[in-house]
Amino acid sequence: MVQTGMRICFLFNHYAAHQVAHAAPFAFELSRRYEKADVVVACTSDALRAAVLRIAALYPKHRVEFVQLEIPLSERIVTALLTRFTFLAKKRMLARNLDFFRGFDAIVTPERTVLLLRTKYGLERVKLINTRHGQGDRMGSFDDRTLEVDLTLVAGRKYVDRFADYGILREGHYAIVGYPKFEVCGNHGPPARLWANDNPVVLYNPHFDPRESSWPSQGHAVLDWFAAHPEYNLVFAPHVVLFERAWKHAAWIPRRIRGLPNIHIDVGSDASIDMTYTRAAAIYLGDSSSQVYEFIEVPRPCVFIDAQGARAANPNKYAHWRFGPVISSAAELGPALIAAREGFPAYAEEQRTAFAYTFSSEPGRSAGQRGADAIAEFLEKGRIESPEFLAH
């Protein structure tokens, strides 16, 4: 299927490694399943490279070549200073490596800054393939940039329907392939036991976007509530970008919270992105993060904080709030946590239905394999003939 000498670059160009598991499995399976494919993984930091290599170990006999892209030290210093305002380094990395990118037939990536290669720098010949990252309900996932991508890989039927709803569905330019993160992060041994006691473990996972996050107005109040209620164990593991751009998001931990025996704080370790906490927690507490969909792989109680009173404005945007009680402030946490646990049977079927709608699976073929096959088909034919076939 893949033409002789076809060169395919998987690009990881971010400040954190949370997107790697959404694309790397496709690279390794592509190299294993298609001997004519020349697959290169390009990373822009040591952290990204380390994350890729951890996943690579799960795919023996792959033929992937690893490349690390650099920008000069002086420019790294400037972009580091500007990170608090804008993700400038991602854009500069593209501009600095145009000759490198010109050497590929396709670039596969989990984010869409790469579109600048076409819109700003004129690399029209190179096919751009987007794997998405996360499968949540936020509006930021559905915009016209999807129309500029040559191929989009999605985890399940939900995104196909949403693309259609928003008028951004291109027939022949998407494929349903499942969720590769599950095969590299989920179900590898029993969930971690984070405390020696048997108190319920709550995962608080606020998003970074202040327009949708509970953090700006309720974050510290949530931490204080759990500090005053040691009968619960709390994992505070927000979206990694919240503290990556801490100045912009007013992200800081009060001294009074640090070191408390029932509160575990993780603002960006590997455990915060590899499903350690979504698997270990008994209750999910959040707002807009797509990680709730990873949490309900095994249905469990959820509570959501609608800090802006936004639910009525766009119910589709907050479809996951059907998984448990919705509150407006930390003051309501006590009753809500009880209601989420005692009333969980009423939410369990909703979670199962949403999970099946969001994530496709296929017996005998992993998401990594399905994604590799979709990429190969697209590069051979210029379109996906039967995206629904990939969903069964």
Q: Can you walk me through this structure?
A:
- The strands form two sheets. This protein has a seven-stranded parallel beta sheet with strand order 3-2-1-4-5-6-7.
- It has about 400 residues and is an alpha/beta fold.
- It has helices at about 25-35, 45-55, 75-80, 90-95, 100, 115-120, 145-150, 155-165, 180-185, 215-225, 240-245, 245-250, 275-280, 290-295, 335-340, 345-360, 365-380, and strands at about 5-10, 35-45, 65-70, 105-110, 125-130, 150-155, 175, 200-205, 235, 265, 285, 300-305, 325.
- The protein is globular and about 60 Å long.
Topology (elements, then pairings):
Blueprint: E1 6-12, H1 24-33, E2 37-43, H2 46-56, E3 65-68, H3 73-82, H4 88-96, H5 98-102, E4 106-109, H6 116-119, E5 127-130, H7 145-148, E6 151-154, H8 157-165, E7 174-176, H9 180-185, E8 201-205, H10 215-227, E9 233-236, H11 240-244, H12 246-249, E10 263-265, H13 276-280, E11 283-286, H14 291-295, E12 302-305, E13 326-327, H15 333-342, H16 345-358, H17 367-381
Parallel strand pairs: 1-2, 1-4, 2-3, 4-5, 5-6, 6-7, 8-9, 8-11, 9-10, 11-12, 12-13
